[in-house]
# Entry
Amino acid sequence: MNMIPYEDFKKLEIKIGKIEAAERVEGSGKLLKLQVDLGDGTRQIIAGIGRFHAPEDIIGHEIVVLANLEHRTLLGHESQGMLLAADTGEGPVLLRPDKEVPPGTAVR
# Structure
């Protein structure tokens, strides 16, 4: 296990987001383009979960997002954060709060 100092962990902005819209990225079998409400506005997140999650099934779900990750372009679409999921042998499992909380709530 690679340990990091607590000061590095404090740099991460992990927040609850609510998926407002989701669609498949044309030309990819696994990428979904998500519009996620993070409380201070909507962000576009490109996530590699499309083989295991249908866009229409995740709209309205609350998810955990790494909000201050450098933006990255995937297949011509800018991703403005990263959805966090458990990496299992059966595909990604979305991390979600056990009860509803407002978008933008900090995860600590």
The two ends are 21 Å apart (CA to CA). The mean pLDDT is 96. The CA atoms of residues 45 and 81 lie 6 Å apart. DSSP finds two helices and nine strands in the chain.
